[in-house]
Amino acid sequence: xxxxxxxxxxxxxxxxxxxxSCAASRSIASINTMGWYRRAQGKxxxxxxxxxxxxxxxxxxSVKGRFTISRDNAKNTVYLQMNSLKPEDTDVYYCSADLPRxxxxxxxxxxxxxxxxxx
Length: 119
Description:
By secondary structure, this protein is mainly beta.
């Protein structure tokens, strides 16, 4: 099991930057995949970015070139650096961690952090 706590959200003007942090309650070195998702009210949760234990990254097309995901195993923290923010990036951002549970992988979620980008 793992508890995830996001921080770093807030209000920023279009073109600005924010860095989200996701602090885990245990070592993340052995967690294969961690990620960031977002979901506006009434919509399905969508992938923003993921990172593996080998530092392989994946991004949604809408954020490529603007967002960077990274992990610091020593601090048990995953980051999402968000640059050139747009109003359409406004959303609740959730951190995730995939861990084995029995024979399957189970995705743990944080509580979310609100990002609001004003035009």
